[in-house]
Design a protein that fits this description.
The chain has ten helices and eight strands. By secondary structure, the protein is α/β, with parallel strands linked by helices. It has one domain: Alpha-Beta Barrel (TIM Barrel). An eight-stranded parallel barrel has the order 1-2-3-4-5-6-7-8, surrounded by five helices. Helix 1 packs parallel to helix 2, helix 1 packs parallel to helix 10 and helix 7 packs parallel to helix 8. The longest helix has 18 residues. The N and C termini lie close together (11 Å). The structure holds 1,3-dihydroxyacetonephosphate. 1,3-dihydroxyacetonephosphate (13P) binds next to strand 8.
Amino acid sequence: MRKKLIAGNWKMNGDKASNASLLADVLQGLEASVACEIAVCVPSVYIDQVGRMVDATPIRLGAQDVSAQDKGAYTGEISAPMLKDMSVRYAIVGHSERRQYHGETDALVGEKAKAALASGVTPIVCVGETLDQREAGETEAVVKRQLAAAIHAVGHCVSEIVVAYEPVWAIGTGKTATPEQAQAVHAVLRAQLAAATEHAEKVQILYGGSMNAGNAAELLAQADIDGGLIGGASLKAPDFLSIVRAAVVASA
Ligand code: 13P
């Protein structure tokens, strides 16, 4: 059975002091052996700080983006070999905020996923439709197009990615997809993965978009929802811990 993965996406939040206290609180609240996987995807300047704090704990380190290039004259970029060098386990790629504010295309997102895998960093490939696209009945087509680009780029390594379904209209809005809406899309994504790899059952598909302590349990109870990519609620230790506990219950 797939383990649940609860990954915090801190986005552009935090500072040294608040990172330290948030992590100390989360670590203190965790059971000694947690029956789910946990990660925090932090701003790159804090990868070193957070890496030291989570070393030898159940929390894995994640980045919020990665370059498609390995090295060279790409000012401001951070490569997958650099992330690996800092013991980073996950890199989010294709978050809707990167697609929207940084013009990232499906093809670039695929290249980033490929670069991450080549360095032993697991890409968390984000897909999701806007409200306009949902209302126009395009949800399935949009997420399939986005995932297809990643599948195409990573080739035979498809089963090594993590996928995150994040409906854009649910991100930071307090509007969550219903468990049924989310499960329907996750099932579509699972079927698409199954057409590309015989190991589709291994792939974790996370839900993201206003997941919180109150709604996590019913989302995580769905057959194809294998965890969460948590924005706002990952910045509050009690909320993040509640979601982790919901994942543990859903795994039992
Ligand atoms: P919120 O949980 O704040 O809606 O953010 C979701 C998200 O974008 C995680 O990547």
